Amino acid sequence: MRTFVSVTGLRKSYGAHRVLDAIDLTIPQGTIFSLLGPNGAGKTTTVQILSTLIKADAGEIWVAGHDLAKEPDEVRAAIGVTGQFSAVDSFLTGEENLRLMADLLHLGRTKGRRRVRELLERFDLTDAARKPAVTYSGGMRRRLDLAMTMVGTPRLIFLDEPTTGLDPRSRRTMWQIVRDLVQQDGVTIFLTTQYLEEADELADRIALLSQGRLVAEGTPRELKRMVPGGHIVVRFADADGYRRAVGHVGATSSNDAALTVQIPDSGGVRTLRKLLEWLDTHAIDVAELSVHTPDLDDVFLTLTQEPSAKEPSR
To answer: Does the keyword Zinc apply (predicted)?
Structure first.
């Protein structure tokens, strides 16, 4: 898979305060990459550098085949940014907001109007196209904001807290829109979010930033396997099966009243396979079996030593 963003040795300081310390990132084209970290970890600074808003102190950055330090205009032409705070003009209609963006990008009247119609339909805004954006719901405003970013057909989109303040239904609608951008358009997404469920749901790969350093990177599944706490819970169908199994399945805890045992599990299939084979061999009936793995909240807490934010704040 072709690399779309490559970052090597990225550093940034403000006075004596080092914000980013030797950051290395590789983002394949047509994937969703999420950067996580507590407030002040350096997420916003990273996005500002990659989107050409500020300069790095050191490091090599390539975006869409262009050296960011030498070809910033070419990088800007390949990217779009949808910030945490909507760029929508509340006093313009949805259609007028999109037309304004098309004019700013010098698309020309015919091409611009065609692009506006396409985006209104794609983002389910056609019925509200001629209504002032101030009347839009939060979900509609976020869709319009992202549609405005798409006017210029960017190949890389920086999404900063894209679902902040949205209700669950609107949040899932945005998730599907983001997936479609990747699957249908081949867009690469750089996602920053404090909703860890969102990163788990969307991201192909996640990097965890803490105090200006990358402390972990991998798929959501790989990150969850970095921390302890996974286990299997078995509830037996009868007391006889429970008594026969409790001393033989490697349980770390048991509950005589509930007929349950808890067995440590590293996240692979080996422990589960051995357990099922043992139960089958000894003809022990199970009423319920569940596998519990650490979630990204556990990863966040363990690797950054800070609790994750349930509601974003910056």
So the answer is: no
